[in-house]
Structures are given as structure tokens and as C-alpha cells.
Amino acid sequence: MAQCDLVSSSTMEPDALRVELIWQKLSRQQLNAQAVEGILAQRLVNTATNKLYWFSPSDVVNFLADMRQANNLQASTLKTLRAALAYLQDNPSIISDSELINYYLDTLMRQAPPVSIHRTAIDISPALAYARTIASRPSTTVKLLQQKLAFVMAMAAFLRPSDLVRIPFASCTILDNGRLRFQAVSPKETRGKRGIIKPFTLHPHAGDYELCPIQCFKAIRDHPALQARPRDANLFVKSNLITQTLSASTASTWFHRDFISLCTSEPGVSIRALASSRALDLGIS
Asked: Taxonomically, which superkingdom (predicted)?
């Protein structure tokens, strides 16, 4: 029995893994072929004892090392094999929590070459064009205005959806110089395990009225449907129930469905990635 017969890719059936591992363990004992086959047959009998004592952490490390050498497997693939081997055990923690196995895999991960985090520049002009079609006027629907305001604020201040839904409306002030000041209260970041208040100031977009976050905020502030907003409400609320705060998941859905999807089909692109790409396009780093 040879490794190449059993391992044709980065995934193996659990039974094949079991046979291969036991075969490797017996082969190291300098037994002849007949002895290996005889013991292997006995060890493959489906009994409680065999399930419990198929292999030890050192057996697994030897097996993973052989698989890596024979098939040029990456550490991430070896972790998948480790998970499959743990599944074969009645007590998976013997494998999954083994300090020896985890140390071996962690060592391989540290030895792996660096991974490039460079992301290809994204053309966000389709999202900007769509945002411009939503007029920054109190006559526009609350839902559309909030979608637009969330987008332009996130792009201007690199805000997460979870930041946006933590902005108290009372913290939003337009200064004498036309800038918009606001706060995000208790966002994801903490200091000494305590929540924080993050202040922001946005500048007017003098060259493009429909992409100016201050103009869009004014339309939200003056919207007739939002005049009954509770004093302690947040900036972003449910358009059909303004006494309730908008959820971060809803804001995230807006971004992906109405803006990000217009620019790229690449998975995992966030609104902050879109803002970063725009900043790089403008020479900001």
C-alpha cells in the first residue's frame, strides 16, 4: 500500500485516512508485509477498543509530516486532515486539543511565506453614480435618504455599519464652518475593556452637492416623517418605525446590495475596503 494510492488531493475519505495512518504506524515497526496485513485487518475491526486506540498524537504528527512531504501539502490542508482524524476518534479532543499536534501545525504556519494582503483597486464610480440619483431633499423617502447618508458617511469617515448605528442623533451638530460633527458611542473598539466615544468631523463636499454628507444629513434632519423622532434616538432608525434603531446587519445589507455589488463581484469586500480603494485612487495613503 502506498501513500500515492490513498492521497490524490487535499481531502481524503475518513476510512482512507484511518487505513493510511494505521498502515504507516505498523510499517515503522519493521514488520514484514504479512504481519502488517494481519495486524491491519484486526485493527480495522469496528470495535470500541479500536476506535479509542487507533492512533496517538505522535502517530498523527508523523502521519501529517509524511503527507506534507509526499504531497507538498500546505499547513492549512494539514489542519483539515487533523480535523478529519479527530472526527474518527470517539474522543476527538485527544487529537484536536493535543499540544504536540497543535505545536507542530503552528510551527508550520509560522514557517509559511508571507501572504500578500494587496487588493486590486475597485472602481467605485457606479456606486457614486447611484448615490447621486438619490436627491438630498426632504421630499425623498426616509429609507433612500438613510441609505445614501450611511454610504457617504461611511465613505468619508471609514465607518463600519456597527459604527453608524451607534451615532446618537443628539450628537450631530452642523458647525458654523459648515462641517458636521458627530459621535459614535461604544463602537467595537474598547480601551481597557471599556466602551469608548469616538468623535468625527466631516467636511462639506463643495464640488458635488449630491455626494455631500452634510447636505444629505440636513435632508434627514428636516424630513417631515422624522420630526417625531424621540429625543434620545439614534441618527439611523427604522424607516417604518422611527422609535427603533436601525440594525448593523440592515446597514450592511444596504451597502452590499445597493452599492458594493455595483462595483465588484469579489466576495468579502466591505464598505471600508471600498472607502480605502477610493482614498488610494485620490492619492491619500
From this structure: Eukaryota
CATH number where 133 lies: 1.10.443
pLDDT tens for 104-137 read 999 998 887 876 665 677 888 999 999 999 999 9
pTM exceeds 0.70: no
The closest of 257, 280, 281 to 269, measured between CA atoms, is 257
d(Cα 24, Cα 36) in Å, to the nearest integer? 10
116 domain residue, yes or no: no
**Closest among 115, 148, 157, 163 to 275, alpha carbons compared:** 157
Virtual torsion, Cα 89, 95, 97, 102, nearest 10 deg: -160
73-91 tens-digit pLDDT: 888 888 888 887 777 666 7
Beta strands across the sheet bearing 194-202:
173-174, 180-191, 194-202
